[in-house]
Protein: dTMP kinase
Organism: Triticum urartu
Amino acid sequence: MDNGGGKGGRGALIVLEGLDRSGKSSQCARLLSFLEGKGCATEGWRFPDRDTSVGKMISAYLSNESQLDDRTIHLLFSANRWEKRSLMESKLLGGTTLIVDRYSYSGVAFSAAKGLDIGWCKAPEVGLLAPDLVIYLDVQPEQKVPFSAVDYSGNPNFIKVNLKFLFQKAAERGGYGGERYERVEFQKRVAEHYYSLRDSTWKVVDGSLPMETVEEQLRELAMNCISECQDKQLTNLPW
């Protein structure tokens, strides 16, 4: 398999999404290390990027150090992604694959969970780059059917009847509840909006599996994506 990343094709935009404490950051780091070991030109990104001017305002809000109107903070999250849009495109066209911890889907799902109109939430994201692959880490108990095995269109209530198990798993992870959005009832609403945002680029991985098993699945998905997208044009989010 051609590893891509500086071998004549563009890089892949790979996004990891999921609820708080679902293991995204750990898996991003592991995937980044694996791809670098394979010789792929790869970088790890994270949104919000708290090092930018806008990102510092977001960080203060998330740490409960400041108060902002829901629409204001939503627009700041979007602006934080727009700050990096040009650099993101340049990196991808130059052959660098980006592993991104959260992206526009988080912004829309979290704001819609606060009661904002989902169409309004999507509007500021129009024009941002579309990922080649979105990996959703689904935290599920071992004896429940993973979301990846379910036909969502045929069972729209599946996510709702399994939410209590999902959040028990998330809450078991250390440090849960330390930031503004890490509250179980709120995360339930976020999960429902994530579900509504799924498209053909999404792959759902059962995050309750052993870390090594999840890691192997992510490696395969990423390598296939990198190989397949080298000759594809970059596109914008289909919103």
Observations:
- The longest strand covers residues 13-18.
- Strands lie at 13-18, 42-46, 97-101, 133-138, 202-206.
